[in-house]
Amino acid sequence: MADNYKTIELDAKYTPKKNEPYMCPQQLAYFYRILTNQREELLSERDEVLNAVRMADKTEAVGVGDDSDAATYNQDITMDLRMSDRSNKLLQKVNAALDRIANGTFGYSVVSGDEIGIKRMMARPLATMTVEEQEEYEARKN
């Protein structure tokens, strides 16, 4: 698939419309912009967490503070690492969605190949199944 969606300049107010061809270059450009922005935010957050953990490690190594301070540092590091893990999982999903844009499968179910639908994709750009397939999947999981 041509990468022309990467270079399309969209009006800032553009949103995909039902009357446009499904996953036309403008719609792909719209989702590409959303997903690349989300990826940049996640990468920036990851860098902040890593810096915070490094700083906490240095502070702990120097031995600043009492046992209470050390416990607080450890709790903060643990929470930062959990958030980082969640962010990394989300980053993987964002990257997978960008890959689907590149290979022409974005907006189509990984189960059936059916259109997921513009309304659902706008609500959840990381969606990989139709609403019905997702509901069936969730019901089987429980």
What would you say this structure looks like, in words?
The protein is mainly α and 142 residues long. The protein has helices spanning 25-62, 67-103, 118-123, 131-141. The two termini are 38 Å apart. The model has no long low-confidence stretch (mean pLDDT 88).
Strand residue percentage: under 5%
Alpha-beta classification: mainly alpha
Number of domains: 2
**Number of helices, counting only DSSP H or I runs of 4 residues or more:** 4
Oligomer: single chain
C-alpha end-to-end distance: 38 Å
Helical residues, percent = 55-70%
Radius of gyration: 20 Å
Could you provide a short overview of the structure?
This protein has 142 residues and is mainly α. It has four helices and no strands.
From the structure above, extract its key features.
mainly alpha, 2 domains, elongated, 142 residues, Four Helix Bundle (Hemerythrin (Met), subunit A)
Task: Please write out the topology.
Elements: H1 25-62, H2 67-103, H3 118-123, H4 131-141
Helix pairs in contact: 1-2
